[in-house]
Structures are given as C-alpha cells and as structure tokens.
Amino acid sequence: MTGDGLSREPMLEMYLFEGSQLVEQLEEIIIECEKNKKIELESVNEIFRIMHTIKGSSAMMMFTNIALLAHSLEDLFYFIRENKITHIDYAGLSDLVLSGIDFVKGEITKIENDKVADGAPENLISAIDHFLEEMKASHTDNYTEQSASKEEEKTMYYISNYQKASSESGRKYNVRVFFEEDCQMQSVRAYMVIHNLKDIASEIFHFPENITDSAESDEIIKDTGFLVNFCTEVSDSEVDSILKQAAFIRKLEVEQVDEYPDIGNKSTPKRKEIILDEVSEVVRSPQIEAIKEEVESQSGINNRQQSMISVTVTKLDMLMDIVGEIVISEAMVTRNPELEGLQLDGFQKAARQLRKLTDELQDIVMSIRMMPISMVFHKMNRIVRDMSKKLDKEVELEIIGETTEVDKNVIDQLSDPIMHLIRNAMDHGLESKEGRIEAGKPVKGKIVLEAQSYGGDVLITIRDDGKGMSRESILKKARETGLVKKPENELSDKDVFSFILLPGFSTKDKITEFSGRGVGMDVVKKNLEKIGGNITIESTFGVGTEILVKIPLTLAIIDGIEINVGKSRYTIPTTSIRESFRMDANDIIADSDGNEMIMIRGQCYSVIRLHKLFNITTQVTSISEGIMVMVETDTKAACLFVDKLVGEQQVVVKALPKYIKKVEGIAGCTILGDGGISLILDANGILGRE
Amino acid sequence: MLDVLSELTESTEDTQQGKFLTFSIGKEYYGLEIKYVTEIIGLQEITEIPQMPLYIKGIINLRGKIIPVVDVRLRFKKEPRDYNERTCIIVIEIQDISIGLIVDHVAEVIVIAAENIVPPPDSKIGFHNRYVKGIGKIENEVKLLLDCDRLLNEDEIDEIAEAVG
Questions:
Q1: CATH code of the region A171-306
Q2: Which of A418, A440, A633, A684 shows the greatest Cβ crowding within 10 Å of its Cβ?
Q3: InterPro entries given for it (chain B) (predicted)?
Q4: Among B13, B7, B25, residue whose Cα is nearest residue B90
Q5: What is the pLDDT of residues A50-83, one digit of tens each?
Q6: The domain A557-689: what is its CATH number?
Q7: What ranges do the domains of chain A cover?
Q8: ipTM for the predicted complex
Q9: Could you tell me how many CB contacts below 8 A there are between chain A and chain B?
Q10: Which chain B residues are Cβ-neighbours of A675 within 8 angstroms?
C-alpha cells in the first residue's frame, strides 16, 4: 500500500491536516484585511488564535522552527490586539504574515514528503520583530500615556498580569460552563478554563472549588455546570474567545454582573475578604444578550466541528471502489439470466429494495467526495495579490459560484490549470495602469472567476477586461511556427485563438500583445483533458478575454447508452449523444474517397462506421440494418454507425489497465451486470481522429 | 491488510525460491518464477480492445479487477492456434501490474536448483531470446525460464524492432 495517508502516524497526519487548514484560513483573513485596509478586532483575535494553535501543536510535534515563527507572529498580533492599534502599515503587515505563511507551508510540505523541516525562520522573525518595534515606536509617540503600562503588560504576557489591577476597575462576569455530556474528566476541563482565564482575570472564584482531583466535582459539574466568577479588564468578545478555547464546551452562559452572585453554599472567595451573601441584581445589557446568543451559536458551531472527522482520500477511494463493485454485483444478482421466466414476486420485491438501497449508498458515497470549488478559488486571491504587486497593476478578483461542488479528484487536478490561466490573465491580459488609462478603462483591472453547474459538467469561466487577443498577431505567430494548415480566411476566430493551446506555440522571446505567451497553455490543456475537461477561448480585441473551462462533475460514475458492434459492447456517455435514428442506404452520400456522410435538417455530418474504425467483425454492415448515433463535442458532431442500441444505464468508470497504452477514442471501461466488460467511448477522441 | 499480505509474501519467499511454474507452448516448455504467479484460471470471455498489437487479446474481468491478457504464443511470434479446453490464463503480478498470459497448457510446479540454471547463449539469434533469462535443466529435459519484467516492459523495443523490420 503506497497511500501515504495510511502509513503516517495519526498524530502527524492530524497535525499536517490541521496546520495546512489553519494556514489557509489565515491567508484568507489577511488578504481580506489588506483589501479592506482595516483589520477587525475579530480578525486579530482569529489570527492570534490560529498562531497560538500552530505554535502549540508545532512545539508539541517538535517542529521548533515553525513554533518560533508562530510565536513571533503571535507576539505581533498580541500587541495589535492589546493596544487596539488601527493605524497599521497593512501592506507591510500582510507581506510579513504571508511570508510567514509561505514558510509554514513550505515546512509542512517538507514534512509531508518525509523530509526534515529545516527551514531557517530567523530572518523572518527578525523582520517581524523589527516591524513590531516600529509599530511600538509610532504607537508610543501617539499615545505616550497609555502605552507605558501596555508595554509592561506586553512583556509580562505569560504571567497573570492583571493581579495588581484593582478589581473595581474591571468588569465582573458570572459564567456557567457546561461541558459535553460524554466528555470525560470534567474537572480537568474546568481546570483548563480557569487556566485560560488566569492570564486576563484579576480574581477568580469558582465552584466546585476542588477541581484538581475529585470525582465528586465531576458529578457537580455534570449536573449544574461549572460556575466561574472573575473580574477582568479585557473586552467582552475577548473573554468570550478565551472561554471558548477550552475543549468540549457544550454551552456557555455569560453574564456581566456588578457583584458576584453567591455561588454554592460552600464557596468562599479566595482573595476577597467580604463574603458575598446577596445575589446582586443582574445587569443584562442588550450587548451582553447579544454576546450570549453569539456564544450559544458559536458553541453550536463547535459541536458541529466536533461531529466532523477527516478521512484520507485513499480510504474514500477504497470505499468508492467497493461501492462500485456492490452496484455491479447487485445487477448481477437481480438481473441474473437464470431468473428469467420465473415467477418470483417476493424476490422481485426484495430485489427492488436492494436496488433502491444501493442507489442511495452510491449517491451518499459520491456526495462525500464532493467538495466546494472554493478550495481552489480562494488560493487565487493570493496569486492575484502577489502578482498585482509585482506587476504594478491594480486588479480586483471577483469570485462567483464558489460553492459549486466538484469531485475531490477533479479539484486536485484543477488547481494548477486555473492558477496558470489567472496568471496569464494578470500578466498578459490586463494592461498596465497607463495602458488602461489610455484605453479609457478604469485603472483597476478586473478578473472574474466563475463556476456554475451545467448538467453533468461544471463550467469555469476566467474573464478579464484586458486588451484581449489580436487575431492578426496570433496568425502571424502561427504562420511563423508553421501551425497554419488551412487557408487563413477559412479559420474562425475560435480556431485562431485555439492556436495558443498548441504545444508548438511557445513564444518565449518576448511578451507579445495577446494574452499568454503560450508558455504552458498546452500543458493547461493537457491537464484539463486528463480529467475529461476541455477549454475554449473567446476574446475581443481591446475589450477582454474569456476562457471557458468545462470539466465533468465526477470521474467515477456516468450515465451511458450501451451499444453493440459485433460481439463487442461499448458505452457512449449520454452527455455526448445528441440523438439516434435509423437511416436508409439511399440517404448516404459518398465522396470520391469513399467517405460517407448524411444530410440531416440541412446540415451535413460525416458517418463513422464503428466497426470499420475499430476493425470489428460484424454481420451488420448495411446502413438500414444498424442504427445511427449522433455524437457531439463542443465543436464537432458526427454520426456513429453501430449495430444496435441495448439500453441506458449508469456505469462505474474504470481505467484501462496500465499495460494497455492509451487508445484514441476509448475513455475507459466498465463492468456490466453480467460480468462482461464494456468499453467507454470518448467522443472527443473519435471525432479528433477524423 | 495489504501490508500484512506483503509481509506474508516476504516470509514465504524463501519457500518459493527455486520453484517454477512450467507451461507449454507448442513443443517447448517454459518456466515462470512462482513468486510472480497469482493464480491460474481457465479461459474466459475476453473483451477486445481496438488498435492493439495482435498479441494483446484484450481485457478480462477477474472478480471486479480488470486485467489485460496477452497471448504468449503470438507474443513469441508463433503461429496462432485455436484455444481449446487445455488453454489456460496464468495471472502474474509484477510491480502492482497484473497481467494474464494465455498459454497452451499448464504443466506443473518444479524445483530447479540454482546450479542447474545456466544463462542463455550470448548471441541473440532466437526470436524469443530476449525474454529468456536462463535455461533450467531437470533430468533430461530443458525448460526456458522467462524474464517476467521483460515480458511486460519491452514493448517499446519491440515496436522499434517492428518499425525497422
């Protein structure tokens, strides 16, 4: 078993998964902040939390360099958070954080490939420190009075640093924490809550008091929740997030109070001498209500997160394979030829039930594999940002339809081609600032990345409002490289633009005026074809370019029509069939080379006899005996002549064995209900051979 | 589970050492190292694939797994012969690639001691020499021991040879 997901240590696996997720989340936040030129307190908290988690888990896994870097970033955001700094050099900040992200990503990749994570974060850390110093300096200038004490807090970050503050100055909270019912060691969880609060609270009382080693407390906490009273200066939302740091919290009840209520009869405040015996009037400002609601909804989210598990794709693939086999065996049983002609009411009923269940099972497994395309799309934000800086172009990336779901396998293959297309659009599609002003366009260029479902396919559009492609320039280049094989006036614009997808069309010498130097466009096309997709280009000179990518939703299961030719059975994907019909021999027109064609509704289509194409012996050779199936691709259509149609069914696509080299016109194969094999035809391949 | 299996194969490797499955094509007897052989099945329905060299007969469905089958007779450029009830498919697996070999009939499993195996003659006169990595002697008989790796991977060379010839 070569699947790396199965052999790796579960802890490490989890770390890698979580790490890359957090980093991606962070990237999104920081790019958003930079775009809006402001950083919300929420985002700061979020970043702080992410850094804290990365630091903790990296230190645990002994990846000290990552931990060090995360620590210094954490410091930076701690400062921002504590001082509520709003005037920040956002570009500088995001540069720093992004390079930090890149560093962590790089290390994670190293670890994934079983290499030693040995990157040196020192330069980055010193850059971050420098940035922090600068920020502190400017901050001190502006708010000399405040900052002195804040500075002090900063240095004392890991100690409970509010001890000295008078309890009168802070707000008092009365919090009741409920843990997950099935969570073990409630008292330890409670201890964690207290531990988290220590840093921010000046005084803490809790009930039950003995939470270090007591089964009795466990019971109390389980029944009535864990009561905490504390006093702090930090903001509501912060309290909120700190409380939520503890694991397994089911519900939080937060109240801001003037005086602590009497918590439990036995409770005696540790540091305060006055014994509170009167429950004070609870102050419930609308704000607090809102927070409470938020807490509850948030803890709802927590619950949902906890009910999610991550599974390696290898396991999913195995599951998929097995479900595929079950679907086939189900057909083998229920449509067994030995049952023909028998009166089996009970059996038929049971068989129907089985079929229904296997269908459902199949749907569920397929849906597990579906993931929103936003995974790919959001990566593009970063690319656009980096490139717009490098190229000094102002660009806005609009993302539409990011929730469109696509099979995981397809997503994995999609990232590179789309990245390439976006890069091309940025580099060659959009004009420079000056160019845009001259052309009377807004200085800020726009790239739209859109996904939408379209039958069994997903359409991805990458549209820019740049200068578009010039037919003449492409033709000129194509002539030079000897790609033009037809008279030029016969070539449609589409034909001309598709030249840039050809391997020979690489013009690395200089950037020409049309989008894409051809660098890698052939690779993009090839990669997309590998997942059954295709690409078309539309462009208007001076107005912009639109690149359309069509990919199938899933690679695993398709609807197909089964046909027979001689003894062989083939499956044609339903999506590529336009119609089927019978023909008379008289309708066939043949040219001098013996190429046959037919006229349908004023259009002429060539006839491809499948038995001739694939060299199959069959009795059915006269046109009137067989049947015509019109297949189409985006650009072409033709009629396939086959012996007969057998029926429509869903089939599980299997790849041909590696030993068999790629056959033009065959996309794969599938196992039929009777155990036989049917080859799946690939309309693109067949029409491409013409 | 597969890990366990592969461990098992490793530990049983010793007992497989020197064992060969012999089969015949025409009058000649060939031997395959037993560690490559996964199973022997009777002839079953083969699905043809267009545009394949003649010796690749097509693919079969072996309990849900699709494997290609090669006619060894044609692979060694011998006259084709109709299949009969003795025709067998030997399924071998090398580097995770499974492939079925159609042979005239399967004989037996024999042990050939290493000292009884001699390398084939240097001069490559015979048409199938490329695939024979040794010649085993057992009593008065001679078995041609096949090189499975080459059998699977030498297509390119074959194609070039065909193109030149």
A1: 3.30.70.1110
A2: A418
A3: CheW (IPR039315), CheW-like_dom_sf (IPR036061), CheW-lke_dom (IPR002545)
A4: B25
A5: 888 888 888 888 788 888 888 888 888 888 877 7
A6: 2.40.50.180
A7: 4-155, 171-306, 313-362, 373-552, 557-689
A8: 0.77
A9: 64
A10: 61
